[in-house]
Structures are given as structure tokens and as C-alpha cells.
């Protein structure tokens, strides 16, 4: 046995109104054998119990933006989620050299993003896991935004080798949908199988490269002088996540019926189109570029 | 001119996370000519500004359950929405003999209920309006739950002749969708046209009867001893609002994969299937019966 992964955390309820992860954690707490593997038994955590209790995304601030190494060390950041991030840093970390080897964090979105695997690390374990899941679930989308692990402010960055966000939609906030629940469970099963194979055999064979999407920028809704939203996602764009957006294609329609088009010069791809959680910052969608993601040849010794 | 309707209130944001009505009210505040008719100009109200500000359904309790005549008179009921209901009773009422003749209240649902016209009055103005809209929008569903106007705890009951709830879905809480916005606007336009025709010509011709759905009962999710939800809407039922449910048809699937079927003896119809707002009371769906709704022959003098 080539045991590399000793400690795996599966987290749900990082956003308290994304019930799928919350109910999967509860399910596995009563059926731990479903997530146990011969070489490890995952820890199960409700990441944000206070927000989960209130069925809100967050109480004071988005927990999934609080794990930057500098913020974790800043005692001035004392809001509900800022304190919870520090508690999770103690529970799973410390971030500089975490106790936990890998974090699998379950999320949902109101956007039509299907099964999206969101990761930022070029570590072979992270990319290998994403590729492995996409081999098993070919409709999965690889959403890759390279970031340094210590700088990354997502909960997934609390794993020694990093982590993976499993993001499934479309689903409303505050409810369960069987298909979303079942797909999320299946993806987590594959993720655990990947780590098990890694430990007891060898890194599973994955393609040398797969096609994915890399974040470019967020596009705000049209707003008025008071900062109020004055337009919606255009009906031809609604639900078209990961589809091409060409120059001149409609992005928004205003409340009075005018169309606003994409002014860029390159073909891009939409993601998080009409995500309810981003209305508080007036964000309408993310633009992505299609990229080939390579399976890295780095040694496993690289931990950030 | 046979002017009957002098004062019409259009309301949105009765639930603060149902943005469609909120943004239509804002739109019409800047474009009042769109809702003006020759015989009346509607009042435009954000019904629950505090909850709208927080993008939550409610702050303390559901505003749309606070308009029962006894509750409006009870000074012990002093929560945020209980006080707001009393303020609206002053603004629109008093309920015993309201200043406002008709209330059009805009809502959305996470259930796949399409365009639903929800009303409880057998007043010819209310039923006539619902029939008129369904003539113009044939896919509209008539959702009829007879209640006495003074007992009715919905905001719509603050109209002298009653009112109509325009309920559109599926849409997540906390976001806008162009099609839902446009359909809601269209239904309100037809509602106003109906009142205008009533005032300046004669009650528009509508069928003597139309098919609709009458509420029977709410069906709870399966729960455990701690009152926690242990099942979801079954995937074959998800999205099937207003479709028949026969004895033995699946209703729920538990977190562990067991199917729970409908145990009744009659064919019924589902509505509000998987409405996020009802999770706080563990309600999975409503059962409805299909009914013929008659256009009443009562005189208009009957006001409650």
C-alpha cells in the first residue's frame, strides 16, 4: 500500500441555504459505511451550522471567502463566518500545514451548471480526481481557476493537497431535489474511490489533458445611479451555462425591454448565469474561456 | 360609464425574496402609464419593505397569513409582519369596509406551477377576472380555495371586492427570470384591462364555467423523531404540478432511497410541489381536486 491520503473531510452547508450537502452529511452520519473506504474514513462536517440553522447563505459574510491565510490570522475579522473560518482552521488546519489531507466541499447553484467540478490547484491529486470523476460522469464540467493554495479563500484550500468543490445546479436555494442529491452523492463516491485507488494501488490512469473552463471575469447586471439592478439575464442566455457567447450576443434585457449585448471581441463561455447568491453584489454571470487542462507531472511532494 | 372600481392596489414584495413583483412595482413606479387605465390609476405598493430589504420571505412571520380580521384587531400580535399587516389595514382598509376596491398581489414559487391564478372569493369580479385572464392566457391554472373575505388571512382580502394572487413558477427565490417577469406583467395587464372594461362598458363576457383546482390538504415530508425531513419529492413527481396523482403513485423518496406512495383512494392533483418556502413547516406538496368553477350570478352588491 502506497498510502498518501490519511484524512479526508467531506463538508456541506458551507452555504446554509444549499441543502443538498447538508442532507448528504446527515445521511452519511447515519450511514457512515457508504463513505468509508479501506484506507481511510472521511470526517463529515456541517461547515456553517449557524447559517444552516437559519437556512441562509451566511449570517454575516460568505464563509467560502474567509480562508485566505492573511484573513485567518487577522483577529480584527470577527464576524460570524470570520470566526467560523478560524474555528475550521483549528479543526482542519492549520492552513500552513493542515491535518486534513483533502477537502471535498458540496455546493449547489441556481445556475444551469449541471455537475461542475470547481478547483484551483494544479496538484496532481486534485486534477487527477477531477479528471477521474469526469471520466465516470462525462457531462461533468471542469471549472479551473488557478490560485495559490495559501491565497485561496475557499474552504477547499484547507486540505494539505487542496480540495475539490462539487457544484450542482440548477436548484433553488432552500430545497432538495432528488436528481441533484443523487448526482452529488455519485460524484463524492467517485472522489472517494479515486483517493482509495491512489492509496492502495497507484494513481488511477487519467487522460493527459481534458477540456475545461477557466474564469476570466464577472459581468455586473445593468444598474441605475442608485446601484439598483435595472436588467435581467436575457432569455436567450438564461440556462446556457458553458455555451459560447460571441460578440454581439445578448447578455441582458432591461426592465423596460432593451437588449444589452456582449461587447467583447473573443468568443467566451458563460457560467454562474443568474446565480441568486450573487445578486447582493449585482453580478449577472461569469465569463470563462475554454482551455485544455493538463495532468501535471509534478511530484506529490508539492503541497501548495 | 358604469364605474364600479375606483381604487386598485397592485402589490409586490409581500414575500421579500420573490423579486419579480418587487421589480415590476419599481418598473411601474417609473412607467406609471403602463398600468394606468382611463377609469382608474392603480396604487403601487411594496407590501413588505423590511423583508424585501433583507431579500427574505419574512422577518418575523409570513405577512401573507396576517390579514384575518381577528388578527388585525389583536394588539398582542406585534411581530414585524403583524405590525406591517396593521399598517396595510390602515393604508388599504379598514378590512371591514376597505378604501381599496381590488388587490392584485404578485407572487412566485419554486414549484412548476406556471401561471397560477389563486383566488378564494366567489365574487363575480374576482372569478370574472380569473376567467378573463385564462381566456387570454390559456395555460393559466385556476387555483380556487373558497374562504370568507373577512376570515381570509391573505393580503388579497384587503380589497373591497377581494383580490387575485398571480403566482408564477418555477423560479428560485432571490432572483429574476425574464419569462416569469414578462408573464407576470402580461397577467397584470389583462387584470387591469378587465377592470377597465368593467368600468367603461360592461362585465366582459366570460364562460359560464371553467375548470380549476380546489385545495384539499397539505402533505408533509417524511420526518424522523426529531422532526427533521428524511425524504424528498420523488423524481417522477418533481415538476408535475396540476398533473394527476393516482393511488400508489410515488410521492417521496427517502434519503436512503425508499419510495413512499400516495395512499389515498381518489385521483388528486399536486400543487406547490417542492416549494422552498414551505420547508420550515415540513410541507412537501398540496393535494388538489379538479373542479368546475362557475361564474356566479350574484349581484355586485355582495362585497364579502
Please give a structural write-up:
Two copies of one chain form a homodimer. Chain A has 304 residues and is α/β, with parallel strands linked by helices. Chain A is 23% helix and 24% strand. The model of chain A has no long low-confidence stretch (mean pLDDT 95). Chain A folds into two domains: 199 residues, Aminopeptidase, CATH 3.40.630; 75 residues, Single Sheet (N-terminal domain of TfIIb), CATH 2.20.25. In chain A, the strands form two sheets. Chain A has a ten-stranded mixed sheet, with helices on one face. In chain A, strands 8-10-11 form a three-stranded antiparallel sheet, with no helix packed on it. In chain A, α5 links the parallel β4 and β5.
Notable traits:
304 residues; N-terminal domain of TfIIb; 13 strands; homodimer; alpha/beta; globular
In short:
The structure is a homodimer of 304-residue chains. Chain A has 304 residues and is an alpha/beta fold.
